[in-house]
Design a protein that fits this description.
Blueprint (H helix, E strand, L loop, with lengths): L20 H13 L4 E2 L13 E3 L20 E3 L8 E3 L3 E3 L9 H14 L3 E2 L7 H6 L3 E5 L8 H6 L2 E5 L11 E2 L6 H7 L7 E2 L10 H14 L6 E6 L3 H10 L4 E5 L8 E2 H6 L4 H14 L7 E5 L5 H9 L4 E4 L1 H7 L7 H6 L24 H4 L4 H25 L13 E3 L2 H7 L18
Parallel strand pairs: 5-15, 6-7, 7-8, 8-11, 11-12, 12-14, 14-15
Antiparallel strand pairs: 1-13, 2-16, 3-4, 9-10
Length: 447
């Protein structure tokens, strides 16, 4: 008996790997609205990262340190090149720049409290310096951005270091956004903006166009601050070797390089996912630039973008960084995306651990908002305590790994202590693929 069509075997539908349901959904959204998607956070795609590296703990050929009896120091000094007063930190983990405007005043205060308790620095971000942040930050880095929002010489002098922002990992080559609903009376006054009107920051500084002009600008800042403050230059990871070289030649004491996993309060999704290179790919090239100039360790390197744990910290230091900086992780530590607010995240069409609409100012956790009712939910003292605890754990983890490699200081970690688990990570980090003494691109005379 012949089978009818209804009796024929059914095939399982296969989704296109190019036009996935998510891609199709975005096409329909764009077609319906005519606007590009804006969100916060960093790149969500899977890219090679520090998880693709492992440490070679001591065995026969190395001698480990005993954690209960032998010291492993974590202090770092930043800005030793020209500044009269370098920044001295107890730990090599700093808090990245996040603006008042993007974050609530309570969140900025919490970051200052937590960083100070842990013996490290925090950073202002676009929009100026708040009394809460300066008052609770033992060491405060003042960001000097293309927008110049809130910038004034008095605050430059109040800071402990100045960070000239050229680029950001989530959007190298792009400017910032702050939607009108987050421009409250206070934010508007600090930035000299009209209340409630969308603001878009410039993508480049208005008074210089290249490294020669930057050198003049850095000299101006040094004169304003009496040559006391270290000058950092922050670049988004794109051409790390050349960008770091030019920043150093312009006079930077410290270079901050921010990979594409670095977060942002708001920018185009297409920017976040398709501009810049992974953090892992930029560290060795940045270090090579400093080595070629004969200035490694004299000019310090801070690495940021997706740092989550003490293992990430230790691996960045082993590859040649002097310190790391965290932003998204610090927000999570003080309460962002907390499951306790799950019902409210669902009402916003999201869920805890996936919420990224920081630009809308409706954050139930009270962190990325200017709504008084929401921001009052965040207790700066308790949130600061959580950040301190998190920084303590990260530091202990980094120390544990350093001791396992026989190091008495976390800055003594080196590429020789690492192996890569994938070809991509081996090529980017320029450390051997596990089980070999080779990495892609290695010159024959390096064997």
């Amino acid at each position: 008996m012949n089978k009818t069509d209804s009796q024929a075997p059914r095939t399982i539908p296969i989704f296109s790997s190019t036009f996935t349901p998510e891609v199709n959904s975005e096409i329909r959204r764009a077609a319906a609205t005519g606007i590009y998607d804006i969100r916060g956070g960093g790149a969500k795609r899977r890219v090679p990262n520090f998880d693709d590296l492992v440490f070679l703990g001591a065995s026969m050929s190395r001698y480990p340190l005993e954690g209960y009896r032998e010291r492993c120091d974590t202090n770092v000094v930043l800005g030793t090149r020209f500044a009269k007063r370098p920044v001295e930190l107890d730990i090599p983990i700093t808090i990245a720049g996040m603006s008042f405007g993007a974050l609530s005043a309570q969140a900025k205060e919490a970051l200052g409290r937590g960083a100070s308790a842990a013996g490290t620095s925090t950073t202002t971000g676009d929009g100026g310096m708040t009394p809460e942040e300066r008052g609770q930050s033992r060491i405060l880095v003042y960001q000097y951005l293309p927008s110049r929002y809130g910038m004034n010489p008095d605050d430059l002098r109040k800071a402990d270091a100045i960070e000239v922002v050229v680029g950001q990992g989530a959007k190298p080559g792009g400017g910032g956004m702050l939607l009108g609903q987050k421009i409250s009376d206070r934010v508007a006054e600090m930035r000299t903006l009209p209340k409630g009107i969308d603001q878009r920051s410039a993508c480049r500084h208005p008074d210089w166009t290249g490294p020669d002009d930057l050198e003049i600008k850095i000299l101006e800042i040094r004169e304003i601050t009496g040559w006391e403050k270290p000058i950092y230059v922050k670049v988004g990871a794109a051409r790390p070797y050349y960008d770091v070289s030019l920043a150093v030649k312009a006079g930077a004491d410290v270079v901050v390089i921010d990979g594409m996993q670095g977060g942002t309060a708001a920018t185009q999704d297409v920017f976040i996912e398709h501009v810049g290179i992974p953090t892992l790919a930029c560290v060795r090239e940045a270090v090579r630039a400093l080595q070629d100039l004969g200035l490694q360790r004299e000019v310090q390197l801070i690495v940021s973008g997706g740092i989550r744990s003490g293992a990430d910290v230790a691996k960045a230091l082993a590859l040649g960084a002097d310190a790391v900086s965290i932003g998204t992780a610090a927000m999570i530590a003080i309460g962002d995306n907390d499951p306790r607010w799950e019902d409210e995240y669902k009402k916003l069409g999201s869920t805890a651990n996936a919420y990224d609409d920081w630009h809308e100012g409706t954050d139930p956790a009270g962190i990325s908002t200017q709504d008084p009712a929401l921001s009052s939910r965040l207790d700066p003292v308790d949130a600061g305590r959580r950040l301190r605890n998190y920084l303590k754990v990260m530091t202990l983890e980094a120390q544990t790994l350093a001791r396992a490699c026989g190091k008495s200081h976390v800055l003594n970690l080196e590429p020789e202590d690492l192996m890569a688990l994938t070809l991509e990570a081996a090529a980017m980090a320029q450390v051997p693929l596990a089980g070999t003494n080779w990495y892609p691109g290695m010159h024959h005379n390096d064997f």
